[in-house]
Amino acid sequence: MIFDLDGTLFQTETLLLPAYHATFDQLRAEGAYNDVTPPESVILGSLGMLLEHIWKQVMPNSVEAVHRRADELLLDYQMKGLQNGEGELYSGVPETLRQLQELGVRLFVASNGLEGYVKQVVAHKGLVSLFEGLYSAGEYKTRSKVDLVRLLLDQHGIKKAWMVGDRSSDVEAGLENGLIVIGCDYAGFRQDGELEDAHVRISRFTDLIQLIAE
């Protein structure tokens, strides 16, 4: 079973939004950005994209150097937040993952995020021992989640799997790789219609146990 991270396992906004505002405060202090901080809804609506695409949505009129500086700042503030105990998993995530592992399900993460972010969230939330592999676009330099998931499947010799996520990129990654797609309908970041092609939708993470039982 392959999981997206943000909006699936992790309540991204609980860590992201304080770091987001701190990032723009610092960009302004450095003279790299001279406008008001874009609305939180813009970055939340962009979750699931590669970071380079997120900043093009958030700061369309800024140059690439500013986008890359924003990468650095956002990651740094999020790492500090994790060290301070910020950020929450969705209800039932640790318990459900342990149950799945006990049932013999191999567990992986596939995220479009940066390597350090993905690994540190999993580490700080005590989930490292539950996953066989953590795959991120930041580490493997993939251009889409379709490619990232294909790489994961190939490296581990996996022929059948479930893809679990909350955005259209997760649905596409699952379908393009011939996987069963479970759409997570509880994060609230998605646009209308993003999960309509998922095989199943769940409204709570804990619903996965019932699906496996069926």
From TrEMBL:
InterPro entries assigned: HAD-like_hydrolase_sf, HAD-like_sf, HAD_2, HAD_sf, PGP-like_dom2
Domain of life: Bacteria
Short name of one Pfam family: HAD_2
UniProt KW Transmembrane keyword: no
Keyword Hydrolase: yes
Gene3D superfamilies in the record: HAD superfamily/HAD-like, Putative phosphatase, domain 2
Residue ranges crossing the lipid bilayer per the database entry: none
Molecular functions (GO terms): phosphoglycolate phosphatase activity
A GO CC annotation given for this chain: cytosol
This protein's UniProt keywords: Hydrolase
GO process annotations (BP): DNA repair
Record's protein name: HAD family hydrolase
